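Retro notes
What went well: the complex prediction finally ran end to end.
Inputs used:
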Amino acid sequence: MDTIFALASAPGRAGVAVIRISGPAAFPAVHELTGAGMAGRGLSVRRLFDSSGDVLDDAVVLGFPGPGSFTGEDVVELQIHGSVAGVSAVLGRLAELPDLRLAEPGEFTRRALENNRMDLAQVEGLADLIDAETEAQRKQAQAVLGGALGAVADGWREKLIRAAALIEATIDFAEEEVPVDVTPEVSALLIAVQDELSHEIKGVRIAERIRSGFEVAIVGPPNAGKSTLLNTLAGRAAAITSEIAGTTRDVIEVRMDLAGLPVTLLDTAGLREAEDKVEAMGVALARERAAAADLRVFLMSEEEVPQDLRQNGDIAMRPKADLLMDASDAISGLTGQGVDVLVSRIEEILTHRSASAGLATRERHRWAMMTAQDGLIAAQGLLEQGPEMYDLAAEDLRHAIRALESLVGRVDVENLLDEIFSSFCLGK
Amino acid sequence: MKHSPVDVVVIGGGHAGAEAAHAAARMGARTVLVTLKREGIGVMSCNPAIGGLGKGHLVREIDAMDGVMGRVADKAGIQFRLLNRRKGPAVRGPRAQADRAIYRSAMLAETEAREGLEIVEGEVTDFLMDGLRVSGVLFADGSEIRAGAVVLTTGTFLRGVIHIGDVRRPGGRMGDKPSIKLAERIDSFNLPLGRLKTGTPPRLDGRTINWDILESQPGDEEPELFSFLSKQVEAKQISCGITYTNARTHEIIRENLSRSAMYGGHIEGVGPRYCPSIEDKVVRFADKDQHQIFLEPEGIDDPTVYPNGISTSLPEEVQEAYIRSIAGLENAKIVQPGYAIEYDYVDPRALNAQLSLRDVPGLYFAGQINGTTGYEEAAAQGLVAGLNAALAVQGREAVAFSRTDSYIGVMIDDLTTRGVAEPYRMFTSRAEFRLSLRADNADQRLTPLGLRLGCVGEERRVAFLDKIERLDTARSLLSSETYTPKQIGSVGIKVKEDGNRRTGLEILAFPDVAFESLIPLVPALSSIEPPIRRQVENDALYASYIERQKRDVSAMKRDEAQVIPHEFDFMIVDGLSNELKQKLTHARPETLAQAGRMEGMTPAALALLMARLRRNGQAKRA
Ligand SMILES: Cc1cc2nc3c(=O)[nH]c(=O)nc-3n(C[C@H](O)[C@H](O)[C@H](O)COP(=O)(O)OP(=O)(O)OC[C@H]3O[C@@H](n4cnc5c(N)ncnc54)[C@H](O)[C@@H]3O)c2cc1C
């Protein structure tokens, strides 16, 4: 049985995001991410790391051993900070684990049903939920496949069908006038798809951002004019898409379009030594959000930027330009001085980043593409050992194609037969 | 005249009918096999060859259930070849050229000897009905037989029309008459019908072929037989000849295209793409300047030769002209002209996985009438229908073959859930679990099932249990101890010096390691016989892939276990889209697994279906 995971809280920005993992590898997964085991039912606060040992996030980890859990299997819930980037990083990390995969909509429910963990009333309520999920997924798929990725994926489909058909022709029609050795053509097809896959896999994280927005944090000491600047930016922006008060009173988010890219501006709490416990928590959160954002705008001079927060490409501008003698590199939300400079720099940086983005937009796709790539590499290695290995190569290729199903559509034997019969004159 | 009632009546003595009758009789059902003529039992209407890729797998599976096709083919085989010998064992398929006469007489002898099976000659013209239920058959002469279940295996006899050029005449097969009256009865069931076509080449007189100038293709030196019980070939072995069409042949065909039944617009049925007529080949692959022809003798004492690769529906004189343009056939005499046949088939989606009509209880369909082509496909369906007819009469639970355990399961599922668009033939690529569904392990996959059902005789039971014991011995010798890389290296096997200890089975999984090379390491292995060695090797070769597929297999089995009752109403499942509801209502999947394979099904929709099924189940229990 696969172990599945998914974001269980509503997608998008929220204070806390819940990622649910269900299946035999749920507890081992916690071990992988936190470096420490988790025995059973209970709650603990853990730090999550990525594969190279860098910190992903701090999480509240809840364990529910089966069969007493929601699905009847071992279940773990990770409650993490709700930033899109953070959630996607943790999901990405989980997808890297060998026995885990992203759940399909409705799959948790299905497991709960299978294990008799739902009562009739819950079943009644299921319909609407699934309907909504399916609809959402359908729309998403349509958007993706209707777009540029659709065209690329069509190309993959064509090449993979051709490759699989060639191998199958040598197997199923060995007695007929078909080539014995199809390795050169099949290899060329597989390499072409592999190249494109690795290109898309690289681009997928940034593409995710294009879909759900870049986060730009405004960071500065209290009363540096962050809120004023935010208001000014919001006011001049062509489109404010939404305004959500942060779930903590310490982070305000404003969503707007900059150069056609969705951007969320974060107004974080002032950076200073906190005086009481509550404020200290706010400041800590502000720093975390700022660190996780895609870009930081520091309202301070270059020298004052805290080194632990600074990342490549960040912008520093001195605040309150209206009060300064030398206003170069300074900004004022009040008078609008320097605002244009800031906006065009943000645009420039984000546009530049998004240019390297691939077309795939979802973690699911990344997982599919990575699995497919593994399969293609394995298939190719086998092909090179000659026709004796074609049955195994065909199996790895089939595995790869199945992984890509969500992108290239279902490929079944009829598709292969169509290709075979149109390419070769068969029939003895 | 009135016969005494029986359990199962099988109509048709072709490959589906014979296998169905034998299966029912092995199950202990009193069975009658009705055929137009006794000599028609086991007739090969087309190429006298059994097996091949995918098809050979089917024959092995039939044999594993103690069916007849494999044993009869072994008796009649005059040339055995294991196809794909140079490829992995999963895709190797046994094939044999059969002596048509021996095949027929051996099949007849088996049938006459089978206890509980009676042959009745006659033409069935109608079913006896008991309300909606079929309860027997009526003959042309007015006699009847009552039966608990009826299996219909009449092949191409439903509105069969034979075409030779622009001459056409009704007929199920050359020399046979079509069953018009029966067809009308079947019409009254309102089954979805479709029209297919197939063709056959002219038969040649082998004494008029100039064999000396032709390439010849001998059989394998070590023949691979079909049956797990057969020990050796019985008939004399022969070689086949090979020749080619040429520019002149193609010219003659092209000039006369308009006179071909298929190209003259006389035929509307859909033909198999993998078995095109020579007309098709010449038109569709105009750039090819020759096509291969295998000249296959139809028997040891029979001079008839089957020229494989040039089936046709051109007029007789054109056939003669193009045949004579071919090297080695310059003086060849045509014994029987090639022809095309069009016939009705029943959309197999009207059947359930037992091959019984969903809406007409008591009636089973098997063979070409279900839109398949080929002896092996027909026989395999016969087996399924025969077993289930007997089980139903005995009030026992039906037997279901699964995509995870057999090619039979793959075929039945393909037919009953997806239907056919052209004559359905088995290919290994249809089996997603191809690596585990091998010809070499068909007995281990299916004989235990046969033993449970009771359709496996004593001889096979003993042989099978003995084989399993030997396999177990070999496997335990290979898994009881582990060896260091150094030990392994010392017997000449290359292995990574990673400090890991490995079992014999793990070493065997390395490419290029043969069973024999392990004997120095585990001397007791020298007592294991070669066939067992090969079997253990094959298992080891695929072990890691099969391990990976295990999840898919168990997920499919789980979904197959979730049965959707016949009367289940898909329209009341809240939350499913209307489109999906309609699709489901139309297709009527019998299990969650079948539903899941339908276009447009999502895991979410499946969860909904399951919720509804659970709720219905609970309501019933309450
Ligand atoms: C012309 C032709 C060409 C073919 N070419 C190929 C090919 O190239 N490749 C390939 O794989 N397969 C080919 N086939 C298909 C293959 O021969 C069949 O698929 C297979 O024999 C079908 O078996 P069956 O048992 O369903 O029917 P059949 O073997 O046709 O048996 C039907 C039986 O039913 C009996 N019967 C019919 N009506 C009645 C009745 N009313 N009462 C009593 N008995 C009745 C008949 O006498 C006959 O014995 C060809 C078939 C034909 C006819």
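What we learned: Chain A touches chain B through 49 residues (CB under 8 Å).
What to try next: split runs per interface for comparison.
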